[in-house]
Amino acid sequence: MHPHHLGFSYFPQLIKITLISLALHVRQCILSGYIKNSHNYNMQTLQQQSQAFKIEETERKDYLLEILSDKYCRSILESIMYKPKSVIEITSDTNIPMSTVYRRVQNLHDNKLLHISGTITDEGKRLFMYKSKIKGMKSTFDNGQIEVELILNN
């Protein structure tokens, strides 16, 4: 027998309505004080946390910490977080010398932190646009252990 004949076609909608109702109920309980929200998270914060990606490899953690400790890399990532930009636009936005931007963009690309798109202009020049794959990074050092999480950019 086909699932639609058993009334299952409404099942996904029922789950969605139930989850929305549950989320609203939990939110109301937090606001009413029935449930203590010790972290003061709102719904947007919870959604952003679900986009975190934990780094497991020690060598990769070291590279990421080194990259993000560099003020130029941080400025570049901030400049291209929400909109793809060319090296010329990044240079203009950040006041970082173009040669430095090229080196840092290459480093960010090598470490898989950039989306790259490209076109060829009417003059035949290649034009690359760069956009950050990350919005941020969380790192902790606890009892000799380093934890690194990347917050992914949509």
Tell me the number of strands: 5
Oligomer: single chain
Helix content estimate = 40-55%
Fourth CATH level, the homologous superfamily of the largest domain: Winged helix-like DNA-binding domain superfamily/Winged helix DNA-binding domain
Structural class: alpha+beta
Order of helical and strand elements: HHEHHHHEEEE
Strand order of the largest sheet: 1-5-4
Average pLDDT: 78
Q: Would you state the CATH class of the largest domain? A: Mainly Alpha
Given as residue ranges, the uncertain stretches (5+ residues, pLDDT < 50) are: 1-19, 34-50
The CATH topology label of the largest domain is Arc Repressor Mutant, subunit A
Approximately how much beta-strand content do the residues carry?
Answer: 15-25%
Distance between the termini: 41 Å
Overall 3D form = elongated
Count the domains: 2
Q: Which CATH architecture of the largest domain is right?
A: Orthogonal Bundle
Rg over alpha carbons: 22 Å
Number of helices: 6
